[in-house]
From TrEMBL:
<protein>
    <submittedName>
        <fullName>Uncharacterized protein</fullName>
    </submittedName>
</protein>
Length: 126
């Protein structure tokens, strides 16, 4: 590192600092993500369903380090694979909401619970 030379200044005496290693770590009060997932309370089998996690915060203007969706059905044996796969394909792009026909991914009259866990670049999760 060397001081910036201002215009009209003799800078030949400015020397660079000696090389050194510096370890950077996350602060003890690092930003913790806040997950917000907006979904309708019920949907028609003929319409579209929207899952919107775009209001989630705490990524520090950087991509999420990880995004994990979990899908659970209230009925034992109800298929969750299609919906789980659809959400997982988003990767870390939760700023995009998902619109899909529920008939293609969900069983009628079954309640689904969606859980979203995100981790930011500082390793904090919510």
């Amino acid at each position: 590192v060397k001081a910036n030379c201002a215009s009209g200044t003799v800078c030949t005496d400015y020397v660079a600092s000696a090389a050194q290693n510096i370890t950077l770590s996350a602060p003890s009060n690092a930003l913790t993500p806040s997950v917000v997932v907006a979904v309708p309370t019920s949907v028609s089998n003929c319409g579209n369903m929207t899952i919107d996690a775009s209001q989630s915060t705490g990524h520090g203007s950087r991509p999420w380090r990880s995004v994990v969706w979990a899908v659970r059905a209230s009925t034992v044996g109800a298929d969750t694979f299609g919906l789980q796969t659809l959400l997982s394909r988003l990767g870390t792009r939760i700023s995009q909401f998902v619109v899909f026909p529920p008939a293609a991914y969900a069983v009628p009259n079954v309640e689904y619970t969606l859980t979203l866990t995100v981790t930011n670049f500082m390793g904090r999760s919510s």
